[in-house]
Design a protein that fits this description.
Blueprint lengths: L1 H16 L4 H23 L10 E4 L5 E9 L11 E9 L10 E8 L4 E2 L5 E2 L5 E5 L10 E5 L9 H6 E4 L1
Parallel strand pairs: 1-7, 8-9
Antiparallel strand pairs: 1-2, 2-3, 3-4, 4-7, 5-6
Length: 168
């Protein structure tokens, strides 16, 4: 799509320039290509929901290192901050409470997709992270590492907030 856009745009710029010379048209063509390449890189960095097959980092001491989302328990598109997911453990510590291959529940505590706040600001994180919980919503681990947003209070995950080191 972007390549077609670049080729059409460069043809238009050459036809508009007519006989003004090759140097000006080639400089415009290269500037068009850099604009298109920056546009493509922005599309690739677009943040999305946590959906099926998303790999998340586990930020508690339950024994798991990485989990893969199987299903979001809320919306059709996927999970956001504070939502509960069903996940499969992909990497685990050898002597932890949770073993590799186990199906667990988790609460999303950090998401790369931005979420708007009431005051007009937006919160987003560099990574996707989850805290493992049991069926009742109580955390499996006893510590939560890294920042946790205060939006979890609205979603009734107060126990996770009390275990967290830093509330963002």
């Amino acid at each position: 799509m972007a390549a077609a856009f670049a080729s059409k745009f460069s043809r238009v710029s050459r036809s508009l320039l007519g006989g003004l010379g090759n140097n000006l048209s080639t400089s415009l063509t290269t500037s068009n290509e850099t604009i298109c390449s920056s546009f493509i890189s922005q599309l690739q960095q677009q943040r999305t929901f946590i959906q099926m097959r998303t790999v998340l980092k586990v930020v508690d001491n339950s024994g798991a290192k990485k989990v893969m989302c199987i299903q979001s328990l809320k919306g059709k598109k996927g999970a956001r901050l504070g939502d509960t997911i069903v996940a499969s453990v992909k990497e685990a510590h050898p002597n932890g409470k949770v073993k590799k291959g186990k199906v667990v529940y988790g609460v999303v505590v950090r998401a790369a997709m931005q979420k708007g706040r009431c005051d007009g600001s937006e919160v987003k994180f560099d990574d996707n992270a989850v805290v493992l919980v049991d069926k009742q919503g109580q955390p499996i681990g006893t510590r939560v590492f890294g920042p946790v947003p205060h939006e979890l209070r609205k979603k009734k995950h107060v126990k996770i907030l009390t275990l967290a080191e830093h509330i963002a």
